[in-house]
Amino acid sequence: MKTIKKILALLLVCLLMAGGTVVASGDGSGGGQEDPLELVTTSVENGAESVALDTSIRLEFNKNVTFDTVRESNIQAFSVKDQDGNAVEIEVVLAESVNKDERNFANIEFAEELRAGMSYTLIVDTALESKSGDKMAEPLEITFTTQSDSDDQSGVGDQEPENQDSQEDNPSLIIFFVGIGAVVAFAGFKLYKRQNN
């Protein structure tokens, strides 16, 4: 009975250590303050071709760009030009800052359907700022070409970006499972030793 209690106590310690690692990974400031603001994923890659005419562009950054203090200025940091240098009317959609799942995302929607076979450039100015006050090291440009009239209407612009994070990359999970393994191995060794004495 005492052995079971010890095992449970060790498991509890491992859980608390893993939980502490998760909490320590973010301080609510919008990301690691030593790192610049960077693009993580985009639904339309730079150089993409045959992009759907009714596309929207979803951008994921490594930090919070929707916080109330930076929200309005961040909306102004996005612009789109066509291949002739003409400004294209867009709407920048940022989720409410309380929406934790969307705080690193910006969605670019076009006021009108894009023209077929036209090249467009999305520009993200260095004025874009994270909650913690970090900015991009340099402006970001994503140039893409829409599908021609002869292309299939299922362009690449409406695809969701792939999630680049996985549970295997989470250091707190690794620590947790290593701790569980150590506890189980230790308990097994103790039981084996007791049975052979």
Query: How far is it from the N-terminal to the C-terminal residue, by CA?
Result: 18 Å
Could you tell me the CATH topology label of one domain: Immunoglobulin-like
- The CATH architecture designation of one domain is Sandwich
Relative helix content: 25-40%
Secondary-structure element pattern, one letter each? HEEHEEEEEEH
Per DSSP E runs of 2 or more residues, the count of β-strands stands at 8
Q: What structural category arises from helix and sheet content?
A: alpha+beta
Q: What is the C-level CATH assignment of one domain?
A: Mainly Beta
Overall mean pLDDT: 80
Q: How many strands, what sense, and barrel or not for the largest sheet? A: 4 strands, antiparallel
Strand content: 15-25%
Radius of gyration: 24 Å
Low-confidence stretches: 20-30, 153-157
Instruction: Work out the helix count.
Output: 3
Cross-sheet strand order for the largest sheet? 1-2-6-5
Structure description:
The strands form 2 sheets. A 4-stranded antiparallel sheet has the order 1-2-6-5, with no helix packed on it. The protein has a 4-stranded antiparallel sheet with strand order 4-3-7-8, with no helix packed on it. 27% of the residues lie in helices and 20% in strands. The chain is of the alpha+beta class. The protein has a domain of 135 residues: Sandwich (Immunoglobulin-like), CATH 2.60.40.3710. The longest helix has 25 residues. It contains 3 helices and 8 strands, in the order H-E-E-H-E-E-E-E-E-E-H. The chain starts with a helix and ends with a helix. Helix 1 packs antiparallel against helix 3.
